[in-house]
Specification:
The chain contains no helices and 66 strands. It has a domain of about 140 residues: Beta Barrel (Thrombin, subunit H). Strand 57 and strand 58 form a beta hairpin.
């Protein structure tokens, strides 16, 4: 019997490490090491690249390696074979858009168009005017038009006619628009075609394809920290990051200046970036010459956010000389003597925890977070149940009180002076989180002790602060506070001091939810606070079915068509399309499975398709695609962690995120129009129950009745709990769409192995095959 074995390339970087990775707040990585013991030709890894078919190519000082996910194939120089690589020292690798593999060595440039079967060597030819400038190749890159650029030890070259000819760019002493040095060390292109070139004596860029170059040097006013450029990386936002012999530099395009970052190890030892690789969620991986691997938050640029992965994290060599992130999102780390390491950072998508620990004097205060608002400067306004309002500054990681100016005289009803955030009133009704009685006229609200229930920065810049004792508004930054209170004698003013929800509609009018009705405050009346303001009040009337179904408002939302949706605690959901003249009630009907699943509604959201998602108390998640006529409910039996859903948000990719009583949940909606109102494809619950996984254990999810939920303009989601705010970018949880190809690399017939990459037809004899073995 003849046995046939098929040697198959599966996901080169798929099942190697993902099953072993811990997903945690600190992004704990597990590294898998490949050395000579596992088939690598040599343990110094200079460069790494993935080709179009999925193979990983690794350049060392003793040969070129191709990794298929299981084994290494080694390619070396053979003086008797002109179709081999020109040197065993591989210094640069690049796979172009056509699939051609380009290899840089000290003895010339070479390329392979057939996956490594043959190699064509390209050398300088002094007899030809347009030949390669120098045989010592440092770096290879490709521009947006498909031209290959080669950085050599003696000039910058651009390929013409597929590498048959070259244009060469060199330093010219009397030409300030030439490159600053001929020893090219780094090359990088942004999406618009701008080329950045690193040399041993300065950095330069060209916006016109090499016609002219602008140079940045340490001696000028650019702020670059060193003339020795080791690496360049451009992130998805066109931010330029430069690794130099004296630190990591960030280029600010508006100021045309560089800012230098110096991570430290131990006794303030500077770590010199050697190579940079972009990671998702605004993070950069930085390999250093003696300090291991570092993860840096490129969004905040906060030096406190450095994370180091070195010998103590599983690496055996802290000298990183190459980094590469493959199409599956896995990170390859090349070292001087430890071979290459593989880890799965994208599989370790994380939640970040912000400790709510402001101090009052020397006393640490840990409070329940009841309201959150993300400001444009990325600071957070944080409302608490009994410690008032704070502003959290993420870069400094400190809390500050809201700055408030002197209060204006607003009539006979109240006159007081506010200094910073604390107001000394004649009669304050917000002491120690106490709620104001609706029949008492309060003078002010003390924002150092108030129970803050809702926050909103409107389109004009006004800050609205809902509390359990009334409503505050700050018309301008650092300006005075004005107050809305309930006055029983004014039926057209605020209907209750217990604010539960704030929402600004498309016309910049304010809708105010309370425990005793809904208020509508027109844009023109936003600063008229006398006698509780000039508002329209909507309340439930049992005798009138077209009024609100319940006065306890929990959430307010306006859909794309302009309808206002109002969630209540006990009265289901209401909708008005005429500004509140009439309301349509949507209630739970026990005998109707297509009705709203619960009469207590906590959250509302409309997705890109127009569907309305409803978070309920005890009824799980509901979805309606027909304006509320029918609902489909999704509960614990369908995969939800809890039937109590406090928050519902859609991310930029169309996924729905929930805050439930037990977890944060990602929902993959059903995009099939024929079954748009049926079950979602998948629920994924992040509950922090597996040890330190995701850092969610500190949320104390079940200890706070209504934890705050907020989606910022940045796309980040924020969930408040007891003493902590959990926040994350949904991008960090993006599912990888990369599907690796399956490639047959060999066929074995008995003891004979046929090479499918070399032979299009392999004879297997006269007898039929009776067995197949796939390896």
């Amino acid at each position: 019997m003849r046995h046939i074995a098929l040697y198959v390339l599966f996901a080169v970087s798929l099942s190697l490490t993902s099953a072993h990775l811990a997903q945690s707040q600190e992004l704990k990585l597990k590294f898998e090491q490949f050395t000579t013991e596992r088939g690598l030709s040599q343990s110094r890894v200079n460069c790494i690249v993935q080709d179009k078919r999925g193979f990983i190519w690794i350049g060392t000082n003793d040969g070129l390696n191709r990794f298929d996910g299981y084994t290494f194939t080694v390619y070396r120089y053979d003086a008797q074979n002109p179709n081999t690589i020109p040197s065993d020292i591989i210094q640069a690798l690049h796979c172009d858009r056509n699939g051609t593999l380009w290899i840089g060595t000290p003895n010339g440039l070479c390329k392979s168009e057939d996956g490594g079967k043959t190699f064509e060597t390209i050398l300088p030819d002094p007899r030809r005017q347009n030949s390669l400038a120098n045989e010592f190749i440092n770096v290879i890159s490709e521009d947006r038009w498909g031209a290959i650029w080669i950085g050599t030890q003696d000039g910058l070259c651009k390929t013409i006619d597929g590498g048959q000819s070259f244009l060469t760019f060199k330093y010219e002493e009397r030409n300030s628009k030439s490159i600053p040095d001929n020893d090219i060390t780094a090359l990088c292109f942004d999406s618009s075609g701008i080329m950045w070139i690193g040399t041993r004596d300065g950095l330069c860029k060209s916006e016109d394809g090499g016609i002219s170059f602008k140079t940045y040097k340490k001696g000028d006013n650019s702020g670059i920290s060193s003339d020795t450029v080791l690496s360049i990386s451009i992130d998805r936002f066109k931010n330029v990051w430069v690794g130099t012999a004296n630190g990591l530099c960030y280029f600010n395009p508006k100021a045309e200046r560089f800012v230098t970052f110096f991570p430290t190890l131990g006794e303030r030892i500077k770590v010199f970036p050697a190579i940079i690789c972009e990671q998702t969620s605004n993070r950069l991986w930085i390999g250093t010459e003696n300090g291991g691997l570092w993860l840096f938050n490129a969004k905040t640029k906060d030096k406190k956010d450095w994370r180091n992965y070195g010998i103590t994290s599983g690496l055996t060599d802290n000298q990183i000389i190459s980094l590469y992130q493959d199409r599956a999102g896995l990170l390859w780390v090349g070292t001087v003597s430890g071979g290459v390491y593989l880890c799965n950072p994208t599989g370790s998508a994380k939640f970040e925890a912000i400790a709510v620990n402001p101090r009052r004097g020397d006393k640490l205060i840990v409070r329940k977070v009841s309201a959150i608002w993300e400001e444009k400067d990325e600071s957070l306004l944080v409302g608490t149940t009994d410690a008032g309002l704070y502003r959290y500054l993420p870069e400094a990681k400190v809390y500050r009180r809201l700055q408030v100016g002197k209060e204006e005289d607003e009539g006979k009803e109240r006159k007081s002076t506010a200094k910073k955030a604390k107001v000394q009133p004649k009669k304050s009704l917000a002491k120690k989180g106490k709620k104001a009685k609706d029949d008492v006229k309060a003078a002010t609200i003390d924002l150092e002790t108030a129970y803050v229930t809702a926050l909103l920065r409107d389109k004009s810049g006004m800050l609205w602060i809902g509390t359990a004792s009334g409503l505050c508004v700050q018309a301008q930054e650092k300006g005075p506070l004005r107050y809305f209170f309930y006055y029983p004698e004014n039926p057209k003013g605020l209907c209750s001091n217990e604010i539960t929800a704030l929402y600004e509609d498309q016309k910049e009018n304010l809708w105010i939810g309370t425990k005793n009705g809904l208020c509508y405050l027109p844009k023109a009346n936003k600063l008229d606070t006398a006698k509780g303001g000039k508002m329209t009040v909507f309340k439930s009337d049992p005798e009138k079915p077209k009024t609100l179904s319940n006065n306890h408002i929990t959430t307010i939302f306006q859909d794309k068509e302009g309808a206002i949706w109002v969630g209540t605690n006990g009265g289901g959901l209401c909708k008005t399309i005429d500004g509140g003249n009439t309301f349509t009630r949507m209630l739970n009907e026990p005998q109707n499975p297509k009705s709203l699943s619960s009469n207590s509604v906590w959250a509302l959201c409309q997705d890109a398709s127009g569907a309305i998602w409803v978070g309920t108390d005890g009824g799980g998640l509901c979805k309606t695609t027909d304006g509320g006529q029918t609902f489909t409910a999704f509960r614990e039996r369908d995969g939800l962690s809890s039937d109590i859903v406090y928050g519902v948000f859609e991310d930029s990719e169309g996924f729905i995120w929930l805050k439930t009583r037990k977890s944060i949940t990602k929902v993959t909606p059903n995009t099939d129009a024929a079954s748009a109102n049926t079950k979602p494809l998948m629920f994924r619950n992040y509950d922090g129950l597996s040890g330190v996984q995701f850092g969610l254990r500190n949320m104390q999810l079940q200890q706070f009745e209504l934890p705050s939920c907020h989606k910022g303009e940045s796309g980040y989601l924020y969930f408040g709990g007891v003493g902590v705010i959990t926040n994350f970018s949904p991008e960090a949880f993006r599912e990888k769409s990369y599907k690796p190809p399956i490639i047959i690399t060999g066929v074995a017939v008995k003891e004979t192995v046929g090479d499918t990459e070399r032979d299009s037809v392999i004879a297997i004899g006269e007898k039929n095959c009776t067995a197949l073995q796939i390896q």
